[in-house]
Amino acid sequence: MLNLAKMQAQRYWIERSFEDAKSECGMAEYQVRKWQGWQHHMALVLMTMLFMLEERIYNEVETPLLNRLDIQQILVSTLPRCSLDLDEIILQMEKHHKNANMLQDQRLN
């Protein structure tokens, strides 16, 4: 009976971590068609969860109430943003299309 209670308690924390990942780290916000894309998305979500957990542990003495939302807001406000104008976006698209066409030509030959 004790083992059953212990297993149930462990399951709660696993379920809780999945709920947190879905609501705060975008685990449920994937739009992929292939297995590899899903795996990449899940790997990024899990790495994000690990990063946030490590930050909470590292800062627990100075900021005991630090949560994932706080960390997310700090990152959004401090990380640099890449703001491209329309010409730069078009240039990148043309470059990407040119590379894709070259790869397709190589596959056909």
Unreliable spans: none
Structural class: mainly alpha
Relative strand content: under 5%
* Alpha-carbon distance between the two ends: 67 Å
What does the radius of gyration come to? Answer: 21 Å
| Bulk shape | flat
Q: How many independent structural domains?
A: 1
The number of helical elements comes to: 4
Order of helices and strands: HHHH
How many distinct beta strands?
A: 0
Average pLDDT metric: 84
Helix content: over 70%
Secondary structure topology:
Elements: H1 2-24, H2 35-58, H3 68-78, H4 86-108
What does this 3D model show about the protein?
This protein has helices at about 1-25, 35-60, 70-80, 85-109. It is built from four helices and no strands. The protein is an all-alpha fold and about 110 residues long. The chain has one domain (about 1-85). The radius of gyration is 21 Å and the shape is flat. The model has no long low-confidence stretch (mean pLDDT about 85). About 75% of the residues lie in helices and about 0% in strands.
